[in-house]
Amino acid sequence: MKASVLEVRDVQKIYGNRGESQSHALKGVSLTIQEGEFVGIMGPSGSGKTTLLNVISTLDRPTDGFIQIAGTDITQMKQNQLADFRSQKLGFIFQDFNLLENLTVYENIALPLSLQGVSSSEIAPKVHKVAQTLGIQEILQKYPVQISGGQKQRAAAARALVHDPAILLADEPTGSLDSKNAKSLLETMTDLNENHGVSIMMVTHDAFSASYCRRILFIQDGKLYTEIHRTQDRQQFFKQILDVLAELGASHDVR
Ligand SMILES: Nc1ncnc2c1ncn2[C@@H]1O[C@H](COP(=O)(O)OP(=O)(O)OP(=O)(O)O)[C@@H](O)[C@H]1O
């Protein structure tokens, strides 16, 4: 049986101190992601998706509950340990790429390893390997301003994966892409998941993007509402997602 890469148990998040106006953003969320899964997180605006992603990605702490990533309980870690853990075990892709404009694509991809003090001779083969997987070998010497949005997102994905993280966390990764580049990135993520064993958790509003996942967890009002698994083809799954979103009364994009 596969091991779990992520275990979230009874996680609560309350913003604001006692006596102030408080916001109960997560009200006891539990979920497990197994190694090699591609899981989507969806839900209406304000349901707690970003909060969930932030506590899993160690950027914020839960008020209560337990989160284990690759066998390590992150809720017990000190701040400096969390920074190391994040840079070694987690990979992130965001909507707006977050590439450094004054570094080449190669240097951007190498950055997480350079920051960990890995030698340049060890870094080079890793950058070339991940660039090959993402089909961006030709643009390694270019600067972000010289490449397209789709290429920027591939470079960002390469940077997220170069240190071989336990899980790739994606927050609206197709949000800044046109539909052709979005489709191409989603196909790449599917390839990473199916053929390279990358475990992925993706937060998205977009039913088309979500239809590439194998399983989707829906959150509403800080709690898990339901989950669905892809058993048939992607078009069927897309319809199933729209049905749940309609049930939730959520607004959604249809590409
Ligand atoms: N820093 C904060 N301080 C106080 N309340 C917050 C804070 N961040 C989020 N909230 C509240 O917590 C709840 C969940 O917000 P969250 O951003 O996690 O939702 P979301 O599902 O990501 O929404 P969206 O899809 O609009 O990004 C909301 O009621 C929000 O107003």
TrEMBL record:
<dbReference type="InterPro" id="IPR017911">
    <property type="entry name" value="MacB-like_ATP-bd"/>
</dbReference>
<dbReference type="InterPro" id="IPR003593">
    <property type="entry name" value="AAA+_ATPase"/>
</dbReference>
<keyword id="KW-0813">Transport</keyword>
<dbReference type="GO" id="GO:0005524">
    <property type="term" value="F:ATP binding"/>
</dbReference>
<dbReference type="GO" id="GO:0022857">
    <property type="term" value="F:transmembrane transporter activity"/>
</dbReference>
<dbReference type="GO" id="GO:0098796">
    <property type="term" value="C:membrane protein complex"/>
</dbReference>
<dbReference type="GO" id="GO:0005886">
    <property type="term" value="C:plasma membrane"/>
</dbReference>
<dbReference type="InterPro" id="IPR015854">
    <property type="entry name" value="ABC_transpr_LolD-like"/>
</dbReference>
<feature type="domain" description="ABC transporter">
    <location>
        <begin position="6"/>
        <end position="246"/>
    </location>
</feature>
<dbReference type="GO" id="GO:0016887">
    <property type="term" value="F:ATP hydrolysis activity"/>
</dbReference>
<dbReference type="InterPro" id="IPR027417">
    <property type="entry name" value="P-loop_NTPase"/>
</dbReference>
<keyword id="KW-0067">ATP-binding</keyword>
<protein>
    <submittedName>
        <fullName>ABC transporter ATP-binding protein</fullName>
    </submittedName>
</protein>
<keyword id="KW-0547">Nucleotide-binding</keyword>
<dbReference type="InterPro" id="IPR003439">
    <property type="entry name" value="ABC_transporter-like_ATP-bd"/>
</dbReference>
<dbReference type="Pfam" id="PF00005">
    <property type="entry name" value="ABC_tran"/>
</dbReference>
